[in-house]
Amino acid sequence: MNVTKSYLKDLVYKVNGAAIEVHKNIGPGLLETVYHQCLIKEFEFKNINFKSELEIPINYKGFNLETKLRCDFLIEDLLVVELKSVSEIHPVFEAKLLTYMNLLNAPIGLLINFNVKNIFYEGQKTYVNNLYNELWD
């Protein structure tokens, strides 16, 4: 399949829609693990292809390391999704997402914070890397 920027934008839209649905049903202020489990169900309802708690491979100078590093979701092997339920997004969360995207060769990432009043306006941010910039519109 030839992946386009437009396809990825639609994928982000679907995942954001699932997050909004979860947030609308259970509200803010719960543990991240609760939102994670709810999103698994919502992705299943919406037929979104995902991997949960995917172990991220680390190859350091030709050596494969077991680091137990995991991302919350990898959607269609293209979109890395990191969940938070915090009062403030710190730069380290963004750095972590960008690193996961690079390690997984994913062109796009989504950071979702459930501890907000409105997911769409306050709780989600999309990130892209050089892989995304090389894609067609």
Note the main attributes of this structure:
single chain, 137 residues, alpha+beta, five-stranded mixed beta sheet, two-stranded antiparallel ribbon, globular
Write a brief caption for the model:
The protein is of the alpha+beta class and 137 residues long. 42% of the residues lie in helices and 26% in strands. The longest helix has 22 residues, at 5-26.
Q: What percent strand? A: 25-35%
Helix share, percent: 40-55%
Domains (count): 1
Biggest sheet strand order reads 1-4-5-6-7
- List low-pLDDT spans: none
Number of helices: 5
Radius of gyration: 15 Å
Shape descriptor reads globular
Number of strands: 7
- Mean of pLDDT: 95
Main sheet overview? 5 strands, mixed
The first-to-last residue Cα distance is: 14 Å
Succession of helices and strands: HHEEEEEHEHEH
